[in-house]
Each structure stands twice: as structure tokens, then as C-alpha cells.
Design brief:
This protein is an alpha+beta fold and about 160 residues long. It has a single domain, classed as CheC-like (Chemotaxis protein chec, 3-Layer(aba) Sandwich). Helices cover about 35% and strands about 30% of the residues. It is built from three helices and eight strands, in the order H-E-E-E-E-H-H-E-E-E-E. Strands 1, 2, 3, 4, 5, 6, 7 and 8 form an eight-stranded antiparallel beta sheet that branches. Helix 2 packs across helix 3. The mean pLDDT is about 90.
Length: about 160
């Protein structure tokens, strides 16, 4: 599968996640805005306030990162009726989002698309600290005017 096909799988998963969220919360007007994917240089920092990372192995190698600003995570938590808006629920949520998107991709890419449990970080990441096995694509998106990024660095074995 080529890089564009991988990106399309994640765009579809991202759309389905936020459409489900809007339906679940009975907020049909809370649309997801997906920007154009772009390449990230390994010298550029990546990510926003909170980042969830999934390692990929099997027939593919690499990483999936989901990073969001605090406002987006706060909006989702409030939508679910969460009263604790400290960093810990935000970290749990970004890890859950990363895991859900990776799991949805696994359904499309097959059982040999192995995913790890999520790791969660405060803030962005330095790409040079990770052995990125392929080009790193950033897919910026907004939900309820709050921004986030889906960062994909995957190649076939």
C-alpha cells in the first residue's frame, strides 16, 4: 500500500471518529475540518499540548501520533459531562483517540498491522528522537474550532 493509501485510511478513520462523536453527543453541526496533508521535516518539532503515540509493526513499520491542543480535549471531555478537566483526563483521552484511530486502521489494513498500546506525552515531540522509518505526514484538523494533528510515519516492510 502506498503512502497516499495509508493517509486515506486515516482520513476515513478520523472522519468516522468525529462523526460518531457528533452523533453520540447529538451535535450534528459540530463538523470536522480536515486540512491538506503535508510533509514534516525531521528537524521540525511536531505536536501540540498533548500527544498520543502508537507504534506500528508487522507488515508495516512506524508510528501514528495524534496530537491536540488542550481546548479540543477539554471540549470533548465537557461534551461527555466530565467535570475533571485536569491534565490526567486529557492524557487518557488523547491516548484513547490514538488507540481508536489505530484500531480502525488495523481493521482496514489487516491482522498483520500490529499496533502497540498508546504512549502519551505532554506537549509536542522531537522527530529526531524517534526512528521514523518513512516520511512523516501531518494531517491538520479542527473540531469545534480547536486544532489537532494526526501524524503518520508508516512504511511497508
Amino acid at each position: 500500500m502506498n503512502e497516499r493509501a495509508h493517509i486515506d485510511v486515516f482520513i476515513d478513520g478520523l472522519s468516522r471518529y468525529f462523526n460518531y462523536l457528533a452523533t453520540e453527543l447529538e451535535e450534528p453541526n459540530s463538523s470536522l475540518e480536515i486540512g491538506a496533508p503535508y510533509l514534516l521535516s525531521t528537524s521540525q518539532p511536531m505536536g501540540l499540548d498533548f500527544t498520543g503515540m502508537i507504534s506500528v509493526s508487522g507488515n508495516n513499520l512506524g508510528y501514528i501520533f495524534v496530537s491536540a491542543n488542550s481546548a479540543l480535549l477539554k471540549r470533548i471531555l465537557l461534551s461527555y459531562g466530565e467535570v475533571d478537566l485536569s491534565d490526567m483526563p486529557k492524557k487518557d483521552l488523547i491516548g484513547e483517540i490514538a488507540n481508536t484511530l489505530a484500531g480502525n486502521a488495523r481493521r482496514r489494513l489487516g491482522a498483520d498491522f500490529h499496533i502497540s498500546t498508546p504512549r502519551v506525552f505532554d506537549g509536542g515531540l522531537e522527530p529526531s528522537k524517534y526512528q521514523l522509518t518513512s516520511r512523516c505526514y501531518v494531517l491538520p484538523f479542527r473540531w469545534k474550532s480547536s486544532k489537532a494533528e494526526l501524524i503518520i510515519s508508516i512504511r511497508e516492510r
